Amino acid sequence: MIFLSNKKSIYRKSVQSKFCSVRFFLFSLLFISLFNFSCTISKENRSSTTKQKASTTIYNSDSLSITINATNLSEDMSSLSSNDDELALFLYSYKDSLISELPIFSHYFVLNKTNMSDTLHFKKVVKNKYILFLIEIDTEKRIELIEMQIRKNYTALIKAYQEKNYTVIERYLQDDDILGVKVLENLKDETTIEISDIHRMDRYHYQIILK
After folding, report:
1. pLDDT in tens, 15-63
2. Which of 2, 4, 173, 202 has CB 3.0 to 4.6 Å from 77, enough for a Cys bridge?
3. Distance from CA of residue 62 to its chain's centroid?
4. pTM tops 0.70
5. What is the rounded CA–CA span in Å between residue 80 and residue 165?
């Protein structure tokens, strides 16, 4: 009888232990689900706030807009191409042919056959001269790392772009490509930039309007 009593006691403890484990598992699952849900809501709120801020700057006299129109995409040469132009645009102050500051404007965007145009907005910063880089992104690097390489090595990259020296460009940017470099004297009036060329057998043409 004592033996049976001990077996029952052990069995009860085993059941209780399993029940506690199940409860702990369900509680953990619920906690993770609630945490993920709250993160999603937070991201949506940040996105909504960003959109609201963007919409308020459109009509602000202290802001400028950049509209980029693609008439010939860089990634549409063959069936093996992605048909998505992943682009980054950087605008720097260019005093005495020097880039000594972080970009006034930097942005990543995608153009394709269903979306051939995009308009971006940024705060106006008055400088005498600017330099603009249009980069095609073919790597997984973050835009901040690409920008840092341009800012550190802009003299060599500008020369390599002008001479179409892809070996030097690859040394600093790997598989990312420079599609255009333009020096701008001022941004007081509407400025239109045409960027077109043939890069590795693929022709591209972009029109960039700053106003």
Report:
1. 455 545 556 555 555 555 554 444 444 334 433 333 333 333 333 457 8
2. 202
3. 24
4. no
5. 25
